[in-house]
Design a protein that fits this description.
binds (3S,4R)-3-hydroxy-2-oxopiperidin-4-yl beta-D-xylopyranoside; 373 residues; alpha/beta; eight-stranded parallel beta barrel
Length: 373
């Protein structure tokens, strides 16, 4: 009986008079447009990659990623806690695999990130002396930037150095090394990685006060005669509150400084957050999901439409300024991978990307593609 059933399925999937349900399934697997092809004359299209994706453990992702993306950023594996867990101990294996993956698939890698207050190894967190921190700082930047020079396309040299009011974040680097640490990070990176583009990356820097802080950082690096090639606006926004006017002003203000502008971690949350404002501060967690996970079984059409419109508005704006924008990177290939299922509240069901949990293109994907037509 089982044998007969298998034979029936095999026949019906291969012959032309397949049942309707199977035909529909086959149609849904027909090729979809490619983001990287659609925008190939405009900007690079990137994604964050997690370990399973770098190692091609999931066949659906392994197939989709090279068709859709020509840029990628490691979501976690090049952060200090993972790649440099002890004073003289580096774990290069995953980053080397990422470089090979990028070469094989013609994907430009933005290494992320050299100097960031978060995801630091324990030995750095416990440092109290400026000399020790400077030793870590110098070794870390020089070792990684030189090892991957010519192998990665770019580095996020400094990540999230600003407070919301535009002042410098009171990180361990500011407190022990002083405010010149940012220029010094770029100086060390420039020396070690002469063939790699160097960027400053942060969230909410489209907002006026924080943007002014980022402008100051860029000006200061340039005034010191040190190279900075671009600025990354992360782009962790709420689908219902995208600050389009501020984003446009930021594109103009940053590009006027002579640096490339990128949107480096784009995702649009559809879930309520406890602060009622955009916040990508990874330390700002807000407890568990009990009673705060409104769409565990699927997104209502009304919210899906808000997400779709949000992406459409953004890509219209990006295309308007395509001469100033070099890359748009999504923070995750599909909804299931997104960090927003666990941030700022653990264990929720968010829908912030262009592909659903089965890697099927969502209405927002088609709306993005349609902005080119
Ligand atoms: C996030 C990752 O997506 C998570 O997997 C991790 O647990 C925390 O960090 N800004 C950044 C990214 O620059 O590195 C962060 O990535 C999201 C906010």
């Amino acid at each position: 009986m089982i044998k007969i059933f298998i034979t029936f399925v095999t026949l019906t999937t291969t012959c032309s008079f397949a049942p309707l349900q199977l035909q529909a399934q086959n149609q849904s697997q027909s090729p979809i447009p490619s983001l990287k092809e659609t925008f190939k004359n405009d900007f690079l299209i990137g994604t964050a990659l997690n370990t399973a994706q770098i190692q091609e453990k999931d066949p659906a992702a392994a197939q989709l990623i090279p068709l859709q993306f020509n840029a990628a950023t490691p979501e976690n594996i090049m952060k200090a806690a993972i790649i440099h867990p002890g004073w003289d101990h580096y774990n290069f294996t995953l980053a080397d695999q990422l470089v090979a993956y990028g070469q094989k698939n013609k994907i430009k890698i933005t290494a992320h990130t050299l100097i960031w207050h978060s995801q630091l190894p324990d030995f750095v967190r416990s440092i109290k002396s400026p000399d020790s921190l400077r030793q870590f700082f110098t070794n870390h930047i020089s070792t990684l930037a030189s090892r991957y020079d010519g192998k990665v396309f770019s580095w996020d040299v400094v990540n999230e150095a600003l407070e919301e009011n535009g002042s410098l974040r009171k990180s361990i680097f500011l407190q022990l090394l002083g405010e010149d640490y940012i220029v010094e990070a770029f100086r060390l990176a420039q020396k070690a990685a002469p063939h790699t583009e160097l960027y400053y990356n942060d969230y909410n820097i489209e907002q006026p006060k924080k943007r002014a802080g980022a402008v100051e950082i860029i000006k200061k690096i340039k005034a010191a005669g040190v190279r900075i090639d671009g600025v990354g606006i992360q782009g962790h926004w709420r689908a219902s509150h995208i600050p389009l006017a501020e984003i446009e002003q930021s594109i103009l203000d940053f590009s006027a400084l002579g640096v490339k502008v990128m949107f480096t971690e784009l995702d649009l949350s559809v879930l309520p957050n406890p602060w009622d404002r955009d916040n990508a501060d990874v330390s700002a967690t807000a407890g568990n999901s009990t009673g705060k996970d409104p769409y565990p079984n699927g997104l209502p059409d009304s919210v899906q439409n808000v997400l779709t419109k949000g992406y459409e508005d953004l890509f219209k704006l990006f295309l308007k300024h395509k001469d100033k924008i070099s890359r748009i990177t999504f923070w995750g290939v599909n909804d299931g991978q997104s960090w927003l299922n666990d941030f700022p509240i653990r264990g929720r069901t968010n829908y912030p990307t262009l592909f659903d949990r089965a890697y099927k293109a969502k209405p927002a994907f088609y709306a993005v593609i349609a902005t080119k037509k």
